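Q: Please design a sequence for this.
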């Protein structure tokens, strides 16, 4: 049996980067820092997450650097050959399929989330994001 599912929570390391494909599909990339504390140590992992469609637009509208978020999705490995060195390269990215606000701020502006659940893609602002809008 194959299984590819991940749930991760942390804070954005930079503002979301929104772009549109030639077919007008929204694509939003975020960087996520996740802290892990154990014994007397702390380590931070950094992850790249990509959202598509209405979810991408909602992430761009309601989140900013430092915002807390929980992401559910799948792992995707990209492989390519470096044109300058000829070396084979790879990178694992999280493809976001759902999200949840984790901050409790309530002014509705970008960077200040409403504390609502995005696990079904619904934000307190009324923006409705469905998994059917994801192109895979």
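A: Design:
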């Amino acid at each position: 049996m194959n299984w590819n599912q991940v749930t991760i929570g942390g804070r954005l390391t930079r503002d979301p980067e929104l772009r549109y494909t030639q077919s007008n599909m929204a694509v939003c990339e975020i960087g996520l820092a996740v802290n892990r504390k154990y014994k007397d140590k702390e380590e931070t992992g950094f992850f790249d997450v990509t959202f598509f469609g209405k979810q991408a637009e909602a992430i761009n509208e309601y989140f900013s650097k430092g915002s807390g978020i929980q992401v559910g999705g799948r792992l995707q490995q990209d492989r390519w050959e470096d044109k300058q060195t000829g070396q084979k390269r790879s990178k694992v990215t999280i493809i976001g399929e759902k999200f949840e606000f984790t901050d409790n701020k309530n002014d509705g502006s970008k960077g200040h989330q409403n504390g609502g659940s995005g696990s079904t893609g619904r934000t307190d602002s009324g923006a409705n994001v469905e998994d059917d809008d994801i192109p895979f």
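Q: Thanks. Anything notable?
A: The CA atoms of residues 25 and 53 lie 6 Å apart. The chain has a mean pLDDT of 83.
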